[in-house]
Amino acid sequence: MHKWLVFLHVLGAMGFMLAHGGTTAMTLLLKRQRDFDHMRALLDLSRHSGPTLGVALLLLLGSGIAAGFTGHWWGEGWIWAALAILVGITVGMAWSSRAHYHRLRKLLGMPYFEGNKDRPALPPASEKEISAVQATLRPGLVAAVGFGGVVLIAWLMMFKPF
Amino acid sequence: MYELLRFLHVLSAMAYFLFHGAVASVTFALRREPGPKRIDALSAVMVFAYAGAPIAGVALVLTGIVMGFMGRWWGDRWLWTSLGLLLVIGILMNRLGKPYLTEGFVRASNREAQTQTPTRAGFAGAMRKFFFHPMFFALTGSVGLAVVLWLMMFKPF
């Protein structure tokens, strides 16, 4: 039973990374785009992977929590540290998504998310406004936090150091 | 040493899935992204993915091979089965995925080609529709990799 739960956990992690591929590409490529249609295509690429990402994250979390019980690990520090890092990354990414990517969607005249609601497209903003938000993007930092966090979580889970 | 290699194997697998996920998202996007300008952006994603995936793939295979020696698993059938399965998935994706992507990019960037490409009728048309669908690639890849993962974790034979 425990081995199956770990299998499902790893499967969920695989699915999560696969579903995150489009978003990663968007994050790393968006800042250097100068054409607004290019930017719209990249932002859409990320948006459509949302449902798959959600399912994979649920599988990852559900099987991880259950495996924590079957492996009697909830009394150990590494599992709490891994969970805290996961929550931290998720919150950070969600904030970054709203502050930058949904703001860009709004300015580019695409449907966007604001105030916990999906909003319809508005007329596109000026080139100056769009460029100003684009200039605030930090793709290297987002990638380092995201993948660095995943590396740290994998290390904690595999080496169980404390 | 073995534990460290296993850790690197897992990390390279994650990086590989991340890059491959970018390709997967493009295969789906090709069906809904009209216009040459948007297609240019998707081409940039492909360049990004094809730059990173081989590096992660080589790291994944190399760490796997060394671990096979350290764990004395080269005499076990599960290892050969998973390698065979990976090879089959790779060939299938290469033989069907490449023409799909090429055709997708040509059709999406050329509006004339979209209207002129004839639709094949009958069995050939149905087969083409089945194999030239992004969901076919997604399912083949996902199920195949799930079986490979099962073989590696359970080592059943």
The structural domain count of chain A equals: 1
Q: Tell me, what's the shape of chain B?
A: flat
Task: Note the gap between the termini of chain A.
Answer: 24 Å
The sequence of SSEs of chain B as H and E is HHHHHH
Largest interface comes to: A-B, 38 and 40 residues
Specify the biggest β-sheet of chain B: none
The portion of residues assigned to helices of chain A is over 70%
Question: What's the average pLDDT of chain A?
Answer: 88
Please compute the radius of gyration of chain A using only Cα atoms. Answer: 18 Å
Count of alpha and pi helical runs of chain A: 6
Residue share in helix of chain B: over 70%
Oligomer: heterodimer
Euclidean distance between termini CA atoms of chain B: 25 Å
Percent of residues of chain A in beta strands?
Answer: under 5%
Q: Which class of secondary structure composition applies to the elements of chain A?
A: mainly alpha
Summarize this entry quickly.
By secondary structure, chain A is mainly alpha-helical. Chain A has helices at 2-30, 36-47, 50-70, 77-107, 127-135, 139-159; strands at 112-114, 117-119. Chain B has one domain (2-154).
Can you tell me about this structure?
- The complex is a heterodimer of chains A (about 160) and B (about 160).
- With about 160 residues, chain A is mainly α.
- Chain A has one domain (about 1-160).
- Chain A has helices spanning about 1-30, 35-45, 50-70, 75-105, 125-135, 140-160; strands at about 110-115, 115-120.
- Chain A is elongated and about 55 Å long.
- The two termini of chain A are about 25 Å apart.
- Chain B has one domain (about 1-155).
- Chain B is built from 6 helices and no strands.
- The two termini of chain B are about 25 Å apart.
- The model of chain B has no long low-confidence stretch (mean pLDDT about 80).
- At the A-B interface, helix 1, helix 2 and helix 6 of A face helix 1, helix 2 and helix 6 of B.
